[in-house]
Amino acid sequence: MSERQLISDFKGNEYIQGVYAIQNCQLGQTKNGKPFLKCMIGDKSGRTPGRMWNATQSLFDSLPTDGFVYLQGNTQPYQGQVQIIIQNIKSHDPSAEDLAQLLPCTRFNMDDMYGEVVGMLEEVSHPALKALMMTYLEDGDLMTKFRRAPAAMALHHAFLGGLLEHTLQLMRLAKSICPLYPQINGEIVLCGLFLHDLGKCVELQWDSGFSYSDEGQLIGHIARGAIWLEQKAGDCRAMGHELPDALVMVLQHIILSHHGRPEFGAAKLPSTPEAILCNLIDNIDAKMQMANAAAGRDKDLPHAGGNFTEKVWALETRIYKPDPTKM
């Protein structure tokens, strides 16, 4: 691993080699009909596009779609970022040392973030709502996964601790926004945001790279979250707490609708004031994390190759990277 450069340190037109994570490996075709390999190459510091011209079907078949590879190649500025032109590549079985360097991780202390989440939930004043939240916090296995899980495979907060970081940021936003709309039940919003993505704790796997579990492929985090809520509500009632059906229903609706629209994976359109606000707050943090990561502002990366990124498809645009006050 000592020979391997961090992706965040890449500059244009330099030779690189070493073990990296590979994501979304595909075999494409050039305009002339020649096959080429396209993928994302990553490590703990970030991701960048990879291309290998004149790749073969047999080479592609030997590589993981999502996994780890040893590669040799050259960096090349392209449309505002540095990509890797791969010369040689082969599948690699990562060691524990490799994984520590290859899996991206939150910049923040996980224990501190989790403590802040718990503190906000402990401040909930509605007895039934607080009792329900405590049944989640008392689930040690679930909370251990919640601390470590990524929030996504690739789009936003795709790093260890990403789900916790994303959830905490949403809850902080809710604390700031809800007082501006006193008609909103801020405690329902806060608890709904805590619950909305918990299903990702079993939808995703991260022990040896990021991938979808069988449950993630067949059930998904939205359905799993709604199922868990039914189960946790039953546990809560079994302990003698009165838990209104309507309260469980509106929280379940937040889980089912937080993606906003069916084409984005929502099972229902947001149809309560609290669900609408949860969807908007979720969208703010997800898109700002994607935009800041693309611009490299969280790592103060140089603007290799120009001021604009490649098109960020989830944002439907290219991102202008510089802060003009710092140019």
Percentage of residues in DSSP E strands: 15-25%
- Classified by CATH, the class of the largest domain is Mainly Alpha
Supply the number of structural domains: 2
Radius of gyration (Å): 22 Å
Description:
By secondary structure, this protein is of the alpha+beta class. It folds into 2 domains: 7-100, Nucleic acid-binding proteins (OB fold (Dihydrolipoamide Acetyltransferase, E2P)); 105-291, Hypothetical protein af1432, CATH 1.10.3210. It is built from 12 helices and 7 strands. The strands form 2 sheets. It has a 5-stranded mixed barrel. A two-stranded antiparallel sheet has the order 6-7. The model has no long low-confidence stretch (mean pLDDT 90).
Secondary-structure topology with pairs:
Blueprint: E1 15-29, E2 35-43, E3 46-53, H1 57-61, E4 67-78, E5 81-91, H2 96-102, H3 110-122, H4 127-137, H5 140-148, H6 162-177, H7 186-195, H8 200-203, E6 204-205, E7 211-212, H9 214-218, H10 220-238, H11 245-257, H12 273-295
Briefly characterize the structure:
The chain is of the alpha+beta class and 327 residues long.
Name a few traits of the molecule.
7 strands, 327 residues, 2 domains, Hypothetical protein af1432, 12 helices, OB fold (Dihydrolipoamide Acetyltransferase, E2P), elongated
